[in-house]
Amino acid sequence: METEYFVRRKRNPGESVSGSDFSQLVASLRKGTPTAGCFHNPFRVFLANGGSVSLESGAATDTQFAMLETATPECRSPRELICYQIAMEKMLCESVDTTFIDQDAQLMKGSSDAYDHTYGQHESYEMCIAKGLALVGWRIGLILMFPLVVVYQALAILWLAMFFWVGRACRISRSERWGARWIQWNAFGLRCMHLPLALSLWFNILLFALRPHRKQLPAYLASRCILDGAGHLDPKNLFWISARAASVNAIIGFGSYRGTRPMLRCDSWLRGLCMNAIWSSGGYFSLFRPRQRVEIAIGDSGLCEQSQYIRVGATSLAIDIVERTNSKVPCLRDPVGAIARFARDWMLLSSAPDRTLRQWTALDIQHAYAGSVRQMLQSRSSVPIEAWRILDQWQTTLNQLRPTDDESNLPRNMLGRIDWLSKLWLLHQLKSDVSWQTRKKIDLRYHELSQDGYHRRLSEMLSLAPIMDPNDIARARRMPPTNTPATQRGYLIREFDAVECELKVDWTHAEFYFEGKKRRTRFC
Q1: Count of helices and strands (H, E) across the chain
Q2: CA 193, CA 185: separation in Å to the nearest integer?
Q3: H or E stretch including 425?
Q4: What sign has the CA pseudo-torsion 121, 4, 231, 468?
Q5: Residue 402's closest CA among 443, 363, 367, 376?
Q6: pLDDT tens-digit readout, 433-461
Q7: Neighbour-count burial of 214, counting CB atoms closer than 10 A to its CB (0-12 exposed, 13-18 middle, 19+ buried)
Q8: pTM score, whole prediction
Q9: In 10 A of CB 108, how many CB atoms?
Q10: Residues 90-122: pLDDT tens digits?
Q11: C-alpha to C-alpha distance for 485 and 72, rounded to whole angstroms
């Protein structure tokens, strides 16, 4: 899971996190845990628990848009994932407090800022992309794309060499005025060169990949915001359940192309074709596997542990339904239009038609999926205890949510457990003549990760007990998950931290010098 954070500095409110700030942040992190650099990104470091912290600016090269991002290591259960997410958040908070101690800085974990820029969380799940003849067709399509991969990589090498030579000759890298623009031109040229490859992969996906997921999963994803929405107050003083979900405009695609914001993102597949050498064991050849990592990029950066836990657990079970059973679940006619309506409707009254024109509210859809999950679990002889625990919390939450047209009639027992409900209740405590600026301040300060953050103060007032075991969170700060690629990654970072071996890692492999020889290992 990837989570983006914004640093708000009271003494320098217009400043973003720069490269030098990030270096200081990394130095602060190293005091508490061993770290290692990344191959391709100088602004990413990996930690001994298998996760990473990076400086992210999206598609922009201007650092004024940069934010901090944490990425949890690969996990095998929803509870383990949330423990690592909380652990990395605590580590980042401590480092920010140390790095910006003289600037009164606060770490913000939200899904929008005062300028209505949206961001949030990206969840990655391992999914079965195809079976049977569809898998054969997928692999044939990859074979047919191989010449395009070779041509692109040859052109990319020539292009980068030319840019390096011209930039060095003209000393462009020394000019702050032209440096960022030079990088943009370089990226634009590379994107034009791999456009045929991207189009070929796109058609291969449309023909063969994730066909059951594209049919049966969108209804669940469109209605999921009622569980994990962080809440958002727009400039018209209207309250939304989720600004992130409302921005979705496609079911599947590449998030970096043509401004699309799909429910299911396949960016990692395109990066595997374009960024890895064809002779390596990863990249192109890894796409032949029947199971691949797929991103779901519609989640809000929430603060309620229960909401986060149900979101990840229920999504895992919903994917299990799609891949392993023939359960009847709602299939909406227009999932993209439905998610926009559901994300703007805090009263939970909006509905969307399925392919038979039956109307479904977001609550109806969630109840239908939860019921199908229960039938699936009851039909199995061996079911993990955590699956039953997730299902019980999921259905209990749905039973306590109810449609309403009155803010004073919100379910009080969900305060501190569902973010958008908690924020809406806080806003309702204000008088009706309070200005939008005051209401927006509450909207933003709800996400402040400090003792003065409104979510934390609300939780303390309600005396809510944490869902995750503090001992598990403490362990997640130090050790990686077991039996995952993060296990070997974390081991190497910890063992070679004090050794001059020039260790560099990423999500798939590591390189280091040992006994005078360069060694490369791939994480299983």
Answers
A1: 19, 17
A2: 12
A3: helix 419-428
A4: positive
A5: 363
A6: 889 999 999 999 999 998 889 999 999 89
A7: middle
A8: 0.90
A9: 22
A10: 999 999 888 877 667 788 888 776 666 677 888
A11: 12
